[in-house]
Amino acid sequence: MEVLLALMTGLLYAAGLYLMLRRSMVKLIIGLVLLGNGANLLIFLLGRIVKGAPPIIRADANVLTGLYADPVPQALILTAIVISFGLQSFAIILFKRAYKVLDTDDLDQMRDTDDL
Amino acid sequence: MSGPLILQPVLFHLLLSVLMLFLWRQPRYHRGISAVGSALSTLFALALWYRVEASGWVVLQAGQWPAPFGISLVADSFSATLVVLASVAGLAVSLYAGRAIGMARVRFGFFPVFHFLMMGINGAFLTGDIFNLYVWFEILIISSFVLLTLGGEKRQIQGGVKYFTLNVLASVIFLTAIAVLYGLTGALNMADLALKMDALDNRTLVRISGLVFLTGFGIKAALFPLYFWLPASYHTPPSAVSALFAGLLTKVGVYAIFRIFTLLYPKDFFIDSLLLALSVGSIVVGTLGAWREDDLRRTFSWLIIAHIGFILGALALRDARTLSGGVFYLFHDIIVKTGLFLCAGVILRITGTASIKASGGVMEALPRWSLVLAIPLFALAGIPPLSGFWPKVSLLAGSADQGAWVYAGALLAGSLATLWVTARVWSGVFWKAPPSGMEVKEPLVTAGRDRALLWPVLMLALVSLGMGLFPEPVQSLADRISTGLMDREGYIRAVLPTLSMQ
């Protein structure tokens, strides 16, 4: 399971970065989405994966003993997902607006602000 | 007792934003609320600062959860001083924006978003939890996206696309570093992390996580070679917005680098050498960029990059004296860069052109006020009685003691180049007679309500002048902060009183 998730994480990062390097704005957004998902998966993976051991203290004990699934990474991922939703929806509006104003999808054409 | 004080810099701005959202259909009240609110929040920030100076630390464990389990808010002298300076810069920008930002932008929520941004900045300065720092960063970047693109001009949208992409990339990199650290230590609280990271055996992975942090924060702080988004975007929004970005946003990245690399990665030869090399690179690239630039605000944008190099080089040397110079420079830079971009806004209104070559005659239009506008400009170059001079003395003396001659040389060359650039701006914009055919819009500024644009610049100029004429208290504050930053034990003890005893 860990190996599969590690491969998936690597694949998502690689695909995300590759798409960000393309010239099209649509691919740029998809790249950002994949990259964000890659980071979320990485947190999940590095929080150690434990099967069938919920972090619930038994009635006759005061502390958790043995292996248990760490709930913190899930809280982190949830926060990161919510934030990236916000960012992505803003990105889509911004890029749509950019397409309308500039009449191009090609990032190489957006050079006005770099010109001297 | 300390709870409300440390929460005020964050919650008060939230309150202001929410209040203005309720008054969405009465945008005419926004300016007043923002100005009064910013003034009050400066007072609150000062109260927090006094408290920290009196008692050393103000720590709040959110929801009474003891330190490694809950989120800690931590104010030491460094955080508290930065909150004060951010409030002062925010007040100036709020006053300036009240006059300069048109009703069209105000109607679409300029001021609520401005206060959300201030909330994010203060939150980032005050948090003691690394994931919480990520969340504050997201709050402040999403507010900055809105401020940058609000108005939807063609240039703004183009700058916005670049700014957005690189900042989101930086956030993902930052998140990756947090994931690696959590995987290594199982901790998120920075004091707890500092304790646990010392015990780790896998130093290579620790170092790699440090480099990932450096990349993420380096993009946000516009460190060489990760700075490309800055000169492509900072000159596109209205001057009030670029002043806020120039004064505070990159500085939050610098603050994060200071905090993370003093607390979590103390003295690592590889990381320190890399940071020093990148700082020197920033100084070189920033000044060269400013040298050949003709657009006024882009010239200043390049200088931001150069001066980030001054500040971060001080951290890389890991020496209390140099670091105190870097901290002092950071304080000076927040005030002066904000003032400078506000100046640029005033100049753009008078001359109507962004180009230095095509402008001129400001001295003629505003003979007395030109002297006020000159203060941020020449403080930037570090001409002696002004505030840029004193930190450079500490930086130079400290780096010479350490034998860091390349950095010291870059510092001197960078200062000289900055002086050359500011002299060029002064002679090109202020002294030179306006080119024929250009109409100096004198009445716009000297008469009527636009004159009020000059007051915030005067306020920042006076703060800068005060720091320059009375450097002793600022220097001793910077000294205390730099010793505090080098003393990790102090931070850990303040946040984790029980755990560090063991």
CATH architectural label of chain A = Orthogonal Bundle
In percent, how helical is the residue content of chain B? Answer: over 70%
The parts of chain B where pLDDT drops under 50 for at least 5 residues are: none
Name the chain pair with the biggest interface and residue counts per chain. Answer: A-B, 37 and 40 residues
Radius of gyration of chain A: 20 Å
Distance between the termini of chain B: 28 Å
Which term fits the overall shape of chain A? elongated
User: Any idea what the radius of gyration of chain B is?
Assistant: 22 Å
Rounded average pLDDT of chain A = 86
CATH fold label of chain A: Helix Hairpins
Strand and helix order of chain B: HHEEHHHHHHHHHHHHHHHHHHHH
How many structural units, i.e. domains of chain A?
A: 1
Query: How is the main sheet of chain A built?
Result: none
Task: Give the H and E element order of chain A.
Answer: HHH
Structure, explained:
The complex is a heterodimer of chains A (116) and B (502). Chain A has 116 residues and is an all-alpha fold. Chain A has a single domain (2-52, 73-109), classed as Helix Hairpins. Helix content of chain A is 64%, strand content 0%. Chain A contains three helices and no strands. Helices cover 76% and strands 2% of the residues of chain B. A two-stranded antiparallel ribbon of chain B has the order 1-2. The radius of gyration of chain B is 22 Å and the shape is globular. At the A-B interface, helix 2 and helix 3 of A face helix 6, helix 7 and helix 10 of B.
